[in-house]
Design goal:
6 helices; single chain; eight-stranded antiparallel sheet; mainly beta
């Protein structure tokens, strides 16, 4: 039985490699129900657009009431326009992205087995008193005109020295302003003249759709200012974070992750994933890979989460995550059958409730009945969360994403639950996720 642990969190069920910098790209495929594109002749494209049949007598009919009028555009012109768009985006965005170089103690566990983090320290075992360090490269981008730079937490965590290099070659030291390991975001700051600081524009990532163009700019393998283009290949993924609750043993995840088939490689973590308007839709952070290099499945932290976490990191140095205090799993037909519920029951089944947590204080019930499902023994019978404040919840991922994006510490939410087959509404006041 698949289980996820929440305080906004789930047990990691996928293998993901954090990068010293992830760069995401995306290849676009746009269609419209209003426009049909067909190859007309070598070297040109015929674009057929609907025209009212009363004003145009054409030979092709759509839905018996609309005719098509065809205009031929040379393929070279389409390619040139596309190329010009990409060139313009790169010219605008590249100065907003920086190269980050860090020096960390070689024993720092946060950087073990992360691609791109090469140990350049002294490995002479006969001289153990000599400090040993690892040097690594990552990416980041200007957040505001005050010199605040956003990057991944795993890029700078544990660093004893941080240098930032701009596209013009200027290199300056940076200091850490704030860190949030739960969202894998961090803010560092540099002191620079105003004319060298170029802040990004953030997009509304909730409007991103699969198939949209996505463009990644970062520093893969230290190659500054590299751009790659691809498409958004998935949405709503969960990205396991590197943190574990020391009190409960819960592992946490970052919700609503944007998946891309971009070529993401070590050195791009903390870089930008932008849309065709040049606005940031996500921060490239990780890949699914057996080799440590791009396999066509990359992940970016969505702008919606970045825009919520970063201001707090700048103002307080930390971010307080809303905390429910449960672990759970997705409802399935097999689990529903074991609980004598309709097979199509959807929601998040509560597996355990943390003692003294918000869920426990609200009286939510954990699963206590032992059942064997598909040869695996587990527990069922707990409350099933089906909605939060009227928003349907069909899985643990839905629950995690809603809490992360739409709630805050101290807020009271109304959970719609199924208990013993009966629908109930339970108010819960959210706490703050236990600190590390």
């Amino acid at each position: 039985m698949k289980t996820k642990v929440v305080s906004l969190a789930s047990i990691a069920l996928i293998s993901v490699m954090l990068l010293s910098a992830c760069s995401g790209l995306a290849a676009l495929s746009q269609t419209s129900s209003q426009v049909n594109v067909a190859q007309a002749a070598q070297g040109s494209t015929a674009i057929s657009t609907p025209v009212n049949s009363a004003s145009s007598g054409s030979s092709s009919t759509v839905n018996n009431s609309t005719t098509l009028q065809t205009t031929t555009i040379p393929n070279s012109d389409l390619l040139t326009a596309y190329q010009n768009t990409l060139e313009s985006i790169y010219a605008n965005i590249n100065p907003q992205v920086v190269n980050i170089s860090v020096l960390i103690p070689a024993t720092s566990s946060n950087f073990q087995n992360i691609p791109g983090f090469n140990n350049n320290g002294n490995n002479n075992n006969n001289n153990s008193q000599v400090p040993q360090y690892s040097q690594a490269l990552g990416s980041g981008f200007f957040w505001d005109t005050n010199g605040n730079i956003v990057t991944n937490n795993h890029v700078v965590d544990g660093a004893t020295k941080i240098d930032v290099t701009l596209t013009d070659g200027t290199t300056v030291p940076a200091t850490i302003v704030g860190q949030d390991p739960y969202s894998d975001l961090a803010v560092i700051k540099v002191s620079l003249p105003a004319d060298k600081i170029h802040p990004v524009t953030m997009a509304d990532s909730s409007q991103v759709k699969v198939g949209e163009i996505a463009i990644a700019i970062g520093n893969p393998y230290g190659f500054e200012g590299s751009m790659s283009v691809g498409n958004v290949s998935g949405l709503g993924r969960d990205l396991p974070s590197s943190t574990v609750d020391q009190t409960t043993g819960a592992s946490y995840s970052i919700p609503d992750i944007i998946q891309t088939d971009a070529s993401i490689n070590p050195g791009n973590s903390g870089g930008v994933l932008v849309d065709i308007q040049g606005q940031v839709i996500g921060v490239t952070s990780a890949i699914e890979s057996n080799s440590g290099s791009s396999s066509g499945v990359g992940f970016a932290i969505p702008a919606e989460i970045v825009s919520k976490v970063v201001p707090s990191l700048i103002s307080t140095g930390t971010y307080q995550h809303p905390y429910l205090g449960i672990s759970g799993t997705d409802m399935s037909p097999d689990i529903a059958q074991a609980m004598n519920l309709p097979a199509d029951t959807r929601g998040a089944l509560i597996a355990t409730v943390v003692a003294g947590g918000p869920a426990a204080n609200a009286g939510l019930k954990a699963s206590e009945t032992t059942a064997t499902i598909n040869g695996v023994q587990g527990t069922v019978g707990g409350d099933v969360v089906t909605a939060i404040d009227g928003t349907p919840i069909t899985s643990m991922s839905d629950l995690i994403a809603y809490l992360s994006i739409h709630t805050q510490v101290g807020q009271t939410i109304n959970l719609t639950i199924l208990r013993n087959g009966q629908t109930q509404t339970v108010p819960v006041t959210l706490g703050s996720r236990p600190s590390q």
